[in-house]
Amino acid sequence: MNIVVCVKQTTDTAATLSVVDGEASYGDAALVLNPWDEYAVEQALLTKEAEGGKVTALCLGPDSAEDALKQALAMGCDEAVLILDAVFESADTLVVSRALAAGIEKLDPPELVFFGKSAVDSDTGVMGPQVARRLGWPSLNLVAAIPELDASAKTITVERLLEEGRQIVSGRLPAVVSVVKEINEPRYPSFMGIRKASKAEIPRWSAADVGLSGQIQPALSWPEILAPEKSEAVCELIEGGDASEIARKLVDRLVEEKVI
Ligand SMILES: Cc1cc2nc3c(=O)[nH]c(=O)nc-3n(C[C@H](O)[C@H](O)[C@H](O)COP(=O)(O)OP(=O)(O)OC[C@H]3O[C@@H](n4cnc5c(N)ncnc54)[C@H](O)[C@@H]3O)c2cc1C
User: Fold this and answer.
1) I want to staple 97 with a disulfide (CB 3.0 to 4.6 A). Which of 130, 175, 180, 257 is the partner?
2) Out of 1.25.10.10, 2.60.40.1220, 3.20.10.10, 3.40.50.620, which CATH number does the structure's domain 2-205 have?
3) pLDDT digits over 175-217, tens only?
4) Which of helix, strand or coil describes residue 91?
5) Are the C-beta atoms of residues 82 and 59 closer than 8 Å to each other?
6) Average pLDDT taken over every residue of the chain
7) Pocket of ligand 1 contains residue 122 by CB under 6 Å
């Protein structure tokens, strides 16, 4: 079974976002494999271990994104491809999904494409469904378990995690699956995996390589990013002999301030 896993490089979740000259900035925060994508990589590897085949990690990003692909290789992916082109610098989700779908179509035809639930930085959570739509494949998102996968019958059954419970959904292959963290426990890269990944030459595909030319105009732009206004808070401690006195004084203050 050919399996693709789409991974994004993001800033570390501990990084803080600030606005510098109208641009969002994480400063020199460490860049990592999007944490949700570790679960997608793990699920791709588990599927390969059960069904055979190969796993290809696919990323659209800048030069540095090669490190995220190397982490996916170190975890056990067989191949990796980086889609990189200056035309993607201010890409919106429509452009990114078009490029990823075009990249997937250039690979050996996969039966399954895995995504994380969302990227921790831009966090739209739409990439998996958008790529599914572009490929014309079923989109199974927020998947917490895959109880049935039949490669010969080309069918898949998943459990989707909803707030109210779990929903069982059956579909046909090829399909796009985005996963939530309940689905597995990502493995650590092995020492051998890290060595192999460090030596890997990752192919780079330009927009032209994936057959995109006139379709890379974003529909959305981020012309300006504003920092939230600074608000000053004064803290007043209400004291009293016992709880009912404190509560009475608190209510009096709230009435005085016209809060209640
Ligand atoms: C410098 C910069 C400028 C930007 N400018 C704009 C702009 O002007 N207008 C605008 O609308 N957006 C802009 N974006 C946001 C950009 O479009 C999104 O980062 C991108 O579309 C992916 O969306 P997301 O991060 O919300 O992913 P989500 O949909 O939250 O991610 C879901 C899953 O999709 C996969 N995935 C996401 N991104 C990639 C990727 N690149 N490669 C492989 N897999 C991926 C991962 O599996 C991930 O878990 C900008 C981003 C950057 C870094």
Assistant:
1) 130
2) 3.40.50.620
3) 999 999 999 999 999 999 999 999 999 999 999 999 998 778 8
4) coil
5) yes
6) 95
7) yes
